[in-house]
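Feature request disguised as a bug: please show the residue count (258) next to Methyltransferase domain-containing protein in the output. Example input:
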Amino acid sequence: MTEQRADGSVGDADYGRIGAGYSAYRKPDPRIASAVLAALGEARTVVNVGAGAGSYECRRLLVTAVEPSQSMRVQRPAHLAPAVDATAEHLPFPDGVFDAAMTTFSVHQWSDLKAGLREMRRVARGPVVILTCDPDLVRDFWLYDYAPLVLETEARRYPAVADLTETLGGRVTVERVPVPADCTDGFNEAYYARPERLLEPGARQACSAWSFVEPQVRREYVGRLREDLDSGRWDERYGHLRRQPTLDGSLVLVRALP
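Example output, currently without the count:
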């Protein structure tokens, strides 16, 4: 089992160390938010598991947030209710108490994926909604040419979509979610048309996979990208993406009904 850190983080990334400034770069994108809200359907009461700083919590819903990391809980904006200090694997709620359960960019952090998914299914009467990335598609992104170990880390950490669907059971759908060119939620693919943003240390720090790569290797990756941007080589190879309104990347939305 993954060791719990001082700030309460229980995943393989230490958000007590890298979580500062996360909310400045990982702002919920309204178009992705619309997809999540649609997947929640008629739900009014929702538990958001691994809620972090509160991304994708709709104000129109009665949301109960669960987040074990103190450094993430303190970044929740004032208009959101404080998050419950708990983990996905041990949700402190009765059976079927919520209309729905959701989690965004969180399942790859859980110490026991199946236990967390079963807990979400236990406490929700209706849909369980998961926004995550398909590890089979992660390496298709241009960043793999510059930072291969970063995307290898992502591909290793994200659970296979089949593992999610098989554990949840019921009626399950999986849809790819287009990433807008001006996406405000700064995961790696959000910068597919704005590669310069990945030269910013804060942008990289907000994508936890970068923290698994040695500092010297990270510097080499960033230097390679900067060199190709300065020389125009990146635009020769990928400049068409600057004019592409959306990217069908690895982002997927899993929805399971009992």
